[in-house]
Amino acid sequence: ANSFSPDAITCAGEVGIILAHRGDLIKKMRECQSRRSRSMEIVKRV
User: Fold this and answer.
1) Could you read off the pLDDT of 2-46 as tens digits, one per residue?
2) Into how many domains does the chain fold?
3) Within a domain: 26
4) DSSP category for residue 5
5) pTM of the model
6) 11 lies in a domain?
């Protein structure tokens, strides 16, 4: 997604923090993705 939402920026920061722990990287990215999807659903509902 090219949209630069605060949530995406936060996720990018979280991913950067755990870059050293590559085992957690995929999991954290998935968490961020699902979180962003949920917030998008909320926006659509409003």
Assistant:
1) 555 667 667 777 767 666 566 666 777 788 888 878 877 777 776
2) 1
3) yes
4) -
5) 0.33
6) yes
Rounded to the nearest 10 degrees, the angle between the axes of helix 22-45 and helix 6-17 is 170
In a domain, 34, yes or no: yes
Residue 39 is part of which domain span? 6-45
Q: Which residues contact 8 (CB under 8 A, 6 or more apart)?
A: 1, 32, 36
Q: Which residues contact 18 (CB under 8 A, 6 or more apart)?
A: 24, 25, 28
Is residue 32 within 8 A of residue 14, CB to CB? The reply is: yes
Distance CA 46, CA 42 (A): 7
What pLDDT does 9 receive?
65
Token pair for 8: 């995406």
Residue with tokens 């998008």: 40
